[in-house]
Amino acid sequence: MTRKMWGFIPVLNCSQLLSFCPPQSRPSVIRIATPDLRENSLQRTMSDQAFVTLATNDSYAKGAMVLGQSLRKHNTTKKLVALIGPHVAEPCRDALGSIFDEVCVVDVVDSGDVAHLALMKRPDLGVTFTKLHCWTLTHYSKCVFMDADTLVLSNIDELFEREELSAAPDPGWPDCFNSGVFVFRPSNETHEKLLAFCGEKGSFDGGDQGVLNSFFNTWATADISKHLPFIYNLSSVSIYSYLPAFKEYGRNAKVVHFLGKVKPWNYSYDAQKGEVRGHALTPDQGQLHPDYLLLWWQLYSKSVMPVLQQAYGETPFNSGLTEESENGQLQEDVSAQPEASAPPPQKVSSEVRKQRWEAGQIDYMGDDSFANIERKLDSFLK
């Protein structure tokens, strides 16, 4: 993208500045024509509605591929669109192109659109601006945005019966919606308003969720039909905060969202044993539900790895899967493993565990693991 250098910026408000912003300094979208490699492509229903996701690097591209294959697996009739940053490697782009109907390269605004960000005076919101590109997909009448760290568990095409902006409550503050899954109508007008709003108001949480909640600020009170049930955006880490509810309603979950610092692709997977190799977690990183984590890796191993292998060819890449050495021993990605020399955790009293739990210092991999909590709860419910 051609960059404009602005030698002088008059003292104007953000809305006025936007009106003077030349088209070439605005975020650009380059659509990649990709061959349809799916055998059942002719059976798909053509539609002007689409599921949209975003990947700004190769790791999130893998997540997007799993999301796309999970939507395909559950027979969606909608188009699939992937917005990707310019730093996503060519093989990953090719792999995405074999899963998604449309792959669009969008400028990562904090590096590719310096002039625009200078006008907006909000360089900290670069990735947020990138996500807002989804409103420029005006050749679709309605879309559902899904973060690349989500996984579809059943067909969710019924979401297109909802209106903008429909979303599920955030587990941390239910009067805010979580922006990992939301229904929207592409509109250049809305896109311009969102950009102007970002420049004037910023984001109360530093990301897209803060911007969108402030912009669509009547979500909590105006129209209950725009409140998606939590099963459409089930936070995998929130399961631990209300385990009885998960035991009662979890079987109805349609979308799981791997919130937190540690993502499924940060683990490794033993395909022969069908086991996910654990990550060294600290209490503030959270713990992903093992069943959903295993589902992610099973789908990755079966439906994404073959696509990546074809795209990369002879070029090596980090697959996340364990491999056999010449002597038949499994070689694991040691970077995803806890330090072998780490001392075993010391046993603590129930009182100390309670104090640590209340302080948010939860031993997800030990005494406070999901299995132990579930076992304790079952003993009370019998």
Automatic annotation (TrEMBL):
GO terms for biological process: glycogen biosynthetic process. SUPFAM superfamilies: Nucleotide-diphospho-sugar transferases. It catalyses: L-tyrosyl-[glycogenin] + UDP-alpha-D-glucose = alpha-D-glucosyl-L-tyrosyl-[glycogenin] + UDP + H(+); [1,4-alpha-D-glucosyl](n)-L-tyrosyl-[glycogenin] + UDP-alpha-D-glucose = [1,4-alpha-D-glucosyl](n+1)-L-tyrosyl-[glycogenin] + UDP + H(+). Its cofactor is Mn(2+). Residues 1-19 form the signal peptide. Pathway: Glycan biosynthesis; glycogen biosynthesis. Transmembrane segments: none annotated. One of its GO terms (molecular function) is metal ion binding. Pfam families: Glyco_transf_8. Residues 318-354 are annotated as: Disordered. CDD domains: GT8_Glycogenin. Residues 318-334 have a biased composition (Polar residues). It comes from the Eukaryota. InterPro entries: Glyco_trans_8, GNT1/Glycosyltrans_8, Nucleotide-diphossugar_trans. Belongs to the glycosyltransferase 8 family. Glycogenin subfamily. This is glycogenin glucosyltransferase.
